[in-house]
Amino acid sequence: MFKNLFRPALAAGIALATVTGAGAFAPAAAQAQKVAVVNLPAVVVNSSAYKTAQTQRQTTYAAQLQQAETRRQALQAQLDPLVSAFNTARSAANADQAALQQQAQQIQQVQQQGQNELNQILAPVAMSQAYVEEQINDTIGTAVENAAKAQGVTLILSPDTVLFAENSHNMNEAVLAQLNTLLPSAQLVPPAGWLPRELRDQQEAAAAQAAAAPAAAPVSGR
Predict the structure, then answer these.
(1) What's the rounded mean pLDDT across residues 93-106?
(2) Which pLDDT score, from 0 to 100, does residue 216 have?
(3) N or C: which end of the chain has fewer CB within 10 A?
């Protein structure tokens, strides 16, 4: 249900705010430094809202984090002898392949069940991270636009589309300053019933599809 959050893909879904002009691609515009590069993931993880939330989460969700660590250690203690026995059996001469397959399946089942348990324990932590992400994502577009207007930038690119750029084209600090001004801190704990935007969109799409479906025809009796 929950994906890894705030990794290299954490800025997915954030629309780059661009202010385009008629001369945006002209050489004179480039010389005037109207083109800039912004690394959105780097801006996000260096923002005050993100870093503060990361620190606060360790305290607010200390119980869940400790419970997950205790369970992880217990699972590891359960897995270690199984893995050791499997490796010993596998290295034996004329190893029983059917028995090895059963051992491997048992190890995989324990691992999967353990991961499911950990995900359930850490679900509130993941929801908090998603909630903070969404608040930043909802704000960063405005931060980019404000920074672009302040510096007279007419086109903003992401680093993966740029082969070379001088430091003068790097606008990370300008966007970071705008983001910190607009969102100095984020709410850490989501309200009751809150869901990440992806799940809300799925629910809305399902509801719209159900509403658009034709009603079942009544069954007439004889």
Answers:
(1) 94
(2) 55
(3) C
